[in-house]
């Protein structure tokens, strides 16, 4: 998507200019210089110069007092950074639209000057000074020269002060701010420092620098603490692939997109090729990114970034707060339960306790936050402590704020880290341990409540994590918390791309974040007005389905696309939450998952707009008996692929929890698409008041875990899938329509699974029992080998014990392996 061919003529032109410009550096004759400057002025259609001589001042009030590099790419001048506040800066003249240029260097980022009578003056002494409102010198190069000097802006983006002898007295490349340009060295004496925020250019907390051991690192140097966060601080240098032996401490970027550091760290940009413009920047969010200029799209795009999971960047959330991933922005900070934000406008101040914690043993209780890690600030590491021992240890320690506890199922090894401070917190389903937060016993449950405030998004039916158990029932707060978390983290992968995208398009109007814009940019997903949908459905005239969530109508959009519009029942969810949810679902994109094209949220109305599926649901097709073997097998494979994607590839944590024939839709080619995933989240059910049955899937398709109140994992969908497959091939519903031929004389119809198993166990040969269970309507016209595999896999899927069931991707693999085998068999026969 981002690969972009470099038009050759431009590259060679730049090359040509660079060569001539170099020549001009060595020429001292002002006349020649003027001539060359003039010729370039013509080429870059600008009347500005690239060089000033001693005794000259550049005034903030004169618009023409701007230096422009010979090729017109860079400018140096006064750059507005706020209300009547200016910094002397160098910026890219691209993108030319808008007024937000790409600033690459600033002289006085921490001390902007007045918009009136401020000046940059090249003194006769050889010193370059920036004076504020005509008086105070806020910045200078501290240079002096006996011979005359001149200041030039080169095509490289380097602002250089040279004397008559051609000796460089000062250059901006030696004093980087947050950006490194090609050919600019990062050295032992220089570092990149981020901006404070997207709109505040002053020095922020994040630094890229060479550490004392010669390793290039990222440091959060915050208000109270400093932490290295890249490479991962728990890795020793060589584990992170870094060398400590080369003490030259040099890193450099080239125009091909290679970034090389003397500690053996190298980066190759995704678009490795000679590019006109590149830059490496430490962004205000603490990540280091390599940007390339896309001439066609007139934008910068990210061709590499140091940190893929932005919650791993420390400091952003401050103390007693943790970072998690959300949709609509890259990440979010949340105070720990019982804590509140210290400074409502700046997260870096973190959170402070709302309680007074007396460190009396008997007055504390621990609150478990699953998959939350707070890094560093341990009293020590206590291996092989049990949870109770770890709790007791924390209670005995003075000032213990809580502890990190990890228990490995694999080797039975546990780790206990009591904490003196709660910093660098983040939540990720990848993290195998939990944080136990120490809270006062008094009002403990009210803090637990405060965690529930995070759980606006999911009801238990919708999305929970993949194969990661959680405690239900008693600790409902935690359940909700985790569900919320699961959803929140949901967009991680997408957010990676998304982040890149939004960095490109979002300029400095961060305040008016338009979620719509993001979504449209990615998928064409859009918001519809209620009136438009009313019209599309002819006033909700043609009902095509009805489910727990709402009624589905057929409609036709003005562009003649047929749509299925689901009107949700009783929305009791705010628009923001609804949007957050919808945007997650809207971004999930797979050929075997139904595509959402848009939504409507207006007043009480909440509607979802889906692609219309010509052949309706699998349920309809089963009851009309319209499927032949080929279609059946295709449906089994496609559905498995869709679910596997949902479980494992797209968002690891999305479970469907309501797989059934009504939710498998068929397109014009009878290719299945799974519908209704993630939907229950939109209904915002009140778990406390809901009866147990309403938070489970559909009767007949539910895994035993629901009934026995066991941990819910992706295996519940596997179970339901198995039932659907059995239903499809036997032509019998999961709970009814099965003959009650039971030796015990039970009158109740036997469950489909039990019936199939019984047939299998009775049988002596595979073929004979298959014949007994397969829908007679198929009249034996199916491939026996494949059918055997399909039924065997389905039976594995409906094992009572969840660990005995395969994962959805294993199902796909088993079904397709058979496909490949049978193809090669065919081949053999043909030969
Ligand atoms: C140290 O790094 C520099 C820059 O990457 C390289 O030119 C030099 O050869 C390295 N020195 C050694 C001893 O490897």
Which terms summarize this structure?
about 850 residues, Phosphorylase Kinase, domain 1, 6-stranded mixed sheet, Hepatocyte Growth Factor, Agglutinin, subunit A, alpha+beta, 17 helices, disordered C terminus, single chain, binds 2-acetamido-2-deoxy-beta-D-glucopyranose, 5-stranded antiparallel sheet, Receptor-like serine/threonine-protein kinase
CATH fold-level name of the domain at 618-825:
Transferase(Phosphotransferase), domain 1
Report the helical percentage. Answer: 25-40%
The largest sheet is: 6 strands, mixed
User: Strand order of the main beta sheet, please?
Assistant: 37-41-42-40-39-38
**CATH homologous superfamily classification of the domain at 618-825:** Transferase(Phosphotransferase) domain 1
CATH class of the domain at 618-825: Mainly Alpha
Shape: globular
Tell me about this structure.
By secondary structure, this protein is α+β, with helices and mostly antiparallel strands. Among the domains are: 176-308, Orthogonal Prism (Agglutinin, subunit A), CATH 2.90.10.10; 312-456, 3-Layer(bba) Sandwich (Hepatocyte Growth Factor); 526-611, 2-Layer Sandwich (Phosphorylase Kinase, domain 1), CATH 3.30.200; 618-825, Orthogonal Bundle (Transferase(Phosphotransferase), domain 1). Helices cover 26% and strands 25% of the residues. It contains 17 helices and 44 strands. The protein has a six-stranded mixed sheet, with helices on both faces. A hairpin with a 4-residue loop joins β24 (288-294) and β25 (299-305). α4 runs parallel beside α5 (476-489) and α14 packs antiparallel against α15 (766-773). The longest helix is centred in the C-terminal third of the chain and has 23 residues, at 808-830. The radius of gyration is 32 Å and the shape is globular. The structure holds 2-acetamido-2-deoxy-beta-D-glucopyranose (NAG). 2-acetamido-2-deoxy-beta-D-glucopyranose (NAG) binds next to loops. 2-acetamido-2-deoxy-beta-D-glucopyranose (NAG) is lined by residues 246, 248, 250, 260, 262. It comes from Carya illinoinensis (Pecan). Its EC number is 2.7.11.1. It catalyses: L-threonyl-[protein] + ATP = O-phospho-L-threonyl-[protein] + ADP + H(+); L-seryl-[protein] + ATP = O-phospho-L-seryl-[protein] + ADP + H(+). Residues 351-440 form the Apple domain. ATP binds at residue 566.
